[in-house]
Amino acid sequence: MGGHPHTTQSTGPRLIFWELTPKCNLKCIHCRAWAQDERSSEELNEEEARAFLDSVKQWADPIIVLTGGEPLYRPDCLPLARHASDLGLMVALATNGTLITDSIARDIQASGVRRVSISLDGADAETHDTFRGVPGAYDAAIAGLKRLREIGVSVQVNMTVAKHNVDQLDEALDKALALGCDAFHIFCLVPVGCGLQIAETQQIEGERYEQALTWLARKSQEVDINLRATCAPHYFRLLRQTGAKVSPPHGGERLHAATRGCLAGSGVCFVSNRGDVQPCGYLPLVVGNVRRRNLRDIWNESPEFALLRQPDELKGKCGCCEYRTLCMGCRARAYAATGDFMDEEPFCVYEPKLARKAGSE
């Protein structure tokens, strides 16, 4: 491998996932964040948070995704969303939906949030609540979703696909359509945080993973809702192989701008509640902290980020795959499996043409 190439990307990230707080009222068995019962004393305060948004707007124009934990536990969550919106940034809110009362729904609308994503990890209460660890979570999330839709807020359903719900994809999509959602995104389990403990029992096998993504590609041509796969970069390879088109935007413009697979460190970054910067929320590789250094400098000068922008530096079968620039493989899964974020994606069943040719010689 050719070392750590240094490149600059002055245009900045397309998406910044910003964890406002680790506090959450659910006990999800797959949680990336090891959710906590209380807010952390290390969280960026409101002044630091506003300054961070100001600094981002000075050099880039990303979508800011406010996440957690449960971001609504921060009293200044929606004022921060309003500040970002007033700066001209596009803002999305990722929530479990259970805290959304009629009043909070109106506050979300007034804050300028362009879309709210709500996680529904099953087509029924029993499946969802088992995964989320709290009885009644499904009904509360559905109620929150309906409150948002009633006042015209764009809503997206996120579904983490694992063994417990992979056979409910059709039912879950039908539910999202019936609820009037603008988007339905499936997330494939990444073994980090609590997800490490359940990966062996809950993570679907590579073949079943491929089937789920093929289902999504087919459905994306059939339904009037935006469908996408997240943490599933092979989806773009499947679209190319099948000739399917990327599901068209549905009320979200740039919210559906992704045209290739893993964007960790190249189009996306994650900022933790205490300001740590990572390539994505599932790749626990801290490359800087916004309290000590401007995100622009971290983004442009991090050797790790520079390496993640070099598809030709990928190893194993990812390195010789003809789809590597389109897919990149999941860098977080590679890191979890081997400790090397440039190693091959461990859950991809595709055999690259060069690898097949080499094996036949």
Would you give an account of this structure?
The model is unreliable at 1-10, 193-199 and 356-361 (pLDDT under 50). The chain is 37% helix and 14% strand. With 361 residues, the protein is α/β, with parallel strands linked by helices. It has a ten-stranded mixed beta sheet. It is built from 15 helices and ten strands.
Regarding quaternary structure, what we see is single chain
Give the terminus-to-terminus CA distance: 24 Å
Strand fraction:
5-15%
Rg is 20 Å
Low-pLDDT segments, ≥5 res = 1-10, 193-199, 356-361
Structural class: alpha/beta
Number of DSSP E strands: 10
Q: Main β-sheet, in a few words?
A: 10 strands, mixed
Number of helices: 15
Order of helices and strands: EHEHEHEHHEHEHHEHEEEHHHHHH
> Taking all residues together, what is the mean pLDDT?
86
- The largest sheet has its strands arranged as 7-6-5-4-3-2-1-8-9-10
Helix content: 25-40%
Identify the overall geometry: globular
Entry keywords:
361 residues, alpha/beta, 15 helices, 14% strand, disordered N terminus
Gist of the model:
The protein is an alpha/beta fold and 361 residues long. The chain has helices at 46-57, 77-87, 102-110, 125-132, 137-150, 169-178, 195-202, 206-219, 234-242, 295-301, 303-308, 316-319, 324-327, 331-338, 353-360, and strands spanning 15-21, 63-68, 90-95, 115-119, 155-161, 183-188, 226-230, 268-271, 276-278, 288-289. The chain has a ten-stranded mixed β-sheet with strand order 7-6-5-4-3-2-1-8-9-10.
